Request: fold
Amino acid sequence: MSVWLPGAPCTPRACVEGTASWTALPRAVPRLVAVVVLVLAGVALSPLRRRIPAGAIRRWSRAVVRAAGVRIRVTGESAPATGGLLLVANHVSWLDIPLLAGVRPARMLAKKEIRAWPVVGAMAANGALFIDRDRLRALPGTVATIAGVLRSGQAVAVFPEGSTWCGRAQGHFRRAVFQAALDAEVPVQPVRIRYRDAAGAASTAPAYVGDDSLLASLWRVTSARGLVAEVEVLPLLAPGGAADRKALASAAAARVLAGPHEHRRRSHEDRRAAHEFPASGGPSGVRDGIMARVPTT
Reply:
């Protein structure tokens, strides 16, 4: 494991609400089937990504979330539809990925190991940007690659906390990826994602943290009643508004991470932000800034 790999203290036992029960079977099974069908359709069409209209990708992304039984509530600004753009958001769940794509389709940052994953790897190979998390020396090259994609007029999406958190706790934004936005002179689009239950209270049921398995998380989400994903598109951070990546990361974090959280953790590794970058661990539970680890059952 990389010495600069970020982590989170959240675990399923300590943080996540249970929703699954035998009585949820009639509700959960059709939802699971619908999610699988939509994801397989996405994999089949992923080689044609450049030819698929952005509107169709947004509709498909939101359909995946709705198929899991989660309602979507979008508020705030409209993200720029064209031009280079760095999308940044807090990271709670695997649901965050299609939710962010629903704001604006983007190339996502992922660890290189994802290429070999079943199903998800095939989709990622047709659009994701990959980072070798074990080679710190590769970091400047990765930043340069992201900047090049941004200059070409494409959007790139990243979760700068570098790990999933339960939603009641949160990390802080790592800085390196913001250098790409500065180098490419493109705006940063902050997005805040929250999950609520049927009563409107904050919910940790969608959280995918610690040693949780993808199957367990899927079952928990599809078993739940009345889950709502709140996606708040925050005011754009224009290019040239920050002196350096530290200031830009702080400005984005101030917007995204503001709100009623129980606590914010800053570890020793977090404070070494000058040489850090969102990355992902393996089955230990630490997650990539964009993609989750290899699912376990």
